[in-house]
Structures are given as structure tokens and as C-alpha cells.
Amino acid sequence: MGRPLTVDDLDFMPDDGNVYELIDGVLFVSPPSGRRHQRALVRLGELLDDTCPDELAVLWPPYVIRTSVDTELRPDLQVAWDEDIEGEVVLDAPELVVEVVEPNTTINDLNNKKAAYARMGVPHYWVLDPARPSLLAYDLDGDGYRQVARIHAEEPFETDEPFPVRIVLTELLGRPSVVQQAES
Length: 184
Hints:
By secondary structure, the protein is an alpha+beta fold. The chain is built from five helices and 14 strands. A hairpin with a 2-residue loop joins β4 and β5. The longest helix has 17 residues, at 35-51. The protein is globular. It starts with 18 loop residues before the first strand and ends with a helix.
């Protein structure tokens, strides 16, 4: 195309199950997520929804974040203010974004998307890896993120931001051997 893409160009992407996102006019394409990814997404979404204050909403696709004409991201989970939601679009930085990584998305989630979320001003960014299981939690500090937690398996993650929640990955996802056997 010779020009940076805009969110309008996303309307012309094929309906093939892939995830199409724009960061500063550059197209990123991710394959459809697998069963383990979906399981983690649903369980974490339900946990967050159970503890989320009424003025915030826990959202998953098809909800997108669109902060400019050339940037639209489709996080796995986001927690946004009700007032910032228009249809299926979040128009300002949500309070929390969670990406559930898979081997083919890890580099994009930990680099391109993380930097884009920081530029948007997303205060809290979590990266969940259901295969290990592990969770990286970042808080916005100036122009970038600083890691505030790295938990594995049975270690509890307790935070008050953006609202009080306690996560133990083995309780949320099951033990790794159980999860792997169920998916075989």
C-alpha cells in the first residue's frame, strides 16, 4: 500500500480467524488462539469481573482499544472505565490490559504491544503465560513500564491496582500437568 494503514483499512482484512491490529499504521497479524489460551482468558476474565468495581468493565474481544486513526489493538482482556466505551471500542487508555501469550505471540506482546500500551498511558499491563504458568505484572512509570511482580504456579499475586484482586495461577488454571493432559 505505500502509506501507513488506518483503522478504516482493518475493515478490508479477511475474516480468516486471525487477529489484525495496527500500531502507528503498521499492521500486525496473529493467528487464532488455542484452547489453553481461551481457557486462561475466560477464567481470568471471570475472576476479574467478580472483583471489578461497578464503574469499570472487564472486556474481551471483540472490544478494541482505538486511541488514534492509526492505532487499534485487540487485547485479550482489558479493564476500562464505562465512560470510555463506545460500542465495541475503548476510546481512551484502559486501566488494565492483559495479554495471554502463546509461543507465536510472545515477542509482539512483550515488545511492540507493551510499548504501544505505555504510549497510550495504560497504567497496568499483565502478561499471562498459561503454559508455564506465569504472570508478569507491570506498572506504568514515566514513559515505560517497570515490572512489579513475576509469579509462577502456586505463588499468590495480590494487588490493589486497579482494584483488589488475588490470583494463584494453579487455582486459576489448574496444575500444568493437569492442563497439558486435558489438552492432549
